[in-house]
Amino acid sequence: MRVMIIGGGKVGTYLANYLLSEKHDVKLIELREEETPRILLDIPKSALVIGNGTDPDVLETAGIRKCDVVAVVTGIDEVNLTATSLARFEFMVPRTIARINHPKNAWMFNESMGVDVALNQADLMAALIAEEMSLGDMITLHKLRKGKFDFVEEKIAPDAKANGKKISEISLPRQSTIVAVLRHGELIIPHGDLVFETADEVLSIVHQSEKKDLAKLFDRA
Q1: 217 CB neighbour count, 10 Å cutoff
Q2: Cα–Cα distance measured from residue 196 to residue 122, given in angstroms and rounded to the nearest whole number
């Protein structure tokens, strides 16, 4: 994929380094020229563009029209929103991601402003802490479709409702599905006759609103 990252701070530089290691085509735009030596410790010079990420000419020259994704991760919300809107409405980038620094500004980061995915670090941390406190042993591995669905993992407890039962014998929440089961280090593709055993690690996709219902099937009674 072709990815443009606007903001060469610690977050942007780390993201660029990671995506480059995954063999993606990355351009990192940073306004402050004095940051160049630090950034070049982590990414090659060919991936760095010094310029204003809200300047259409800079974006055009850096190749934004060929990008699949633009991620704007500066420390200033106004810059992030402006750059994301430019990417979407001026250059028609298919996917836009914006960092929210101050939670009170989150209401502005929506689709009408060109934002597909808004990363609100404070909200994400608060939500994960709340989930860990309320969902027993269930672990959220990844959030899908703008946070509406989660990819989760949970071990089958000895006295769980699902323990010893076939998948076909339990009633899963309507907006959930079991993706795989890990047993003794082996991956098992789930089917209706699969019988759950104690300590099975169940990987599922579930709507946020139904996570507690799913957890009740696998968690200790």
Answers
A1: 21
A2: 37
d(CA 42, CA 153): 33
Three-class DSSP category at 120 = strand
Scanning the chain, the segments in alpha helix (DSSP H) are 10-21, 36-39, 56-62, 77-85, 121-134, 211-218
Q: What is the DSSP letter of 111?
A: G
Cβ contact 109:100 at 8 Å: yes
Strand partners, 206: 150, 176
CA quadruple 114, 67, 74, 145: dihedral sign: positive
CA angle, 142 as apex, 25 and 87 as ends, to 5°? Answer: 40
Q: Is the pTM of this model over 0.85?
A: no
Q: Give the residues across from 155 on adjacent strands.
A: 201
Complete domains list, the chain, with CATH:
2-121 (3.40.50.720), 132-218 (3.30.70.1450)
12, 19 contact by CB (below 8 A): no
Query: Which strands sit side by side in the sheet containing 201-207, from one edge to the other?
Result: 139-144, 149-155, 201-207, 176-183, 186-188
Read off the pLDDT of residues 17-61 as tens digits, 9 standing for 90 and up: 999 999 999 999 999 999 999 999 999 999 999 999 999 999 999
Tokens of 147: 């946070």
Integer distance in angstroms from the first to the last C-alpha of the chain?
Answer: 45
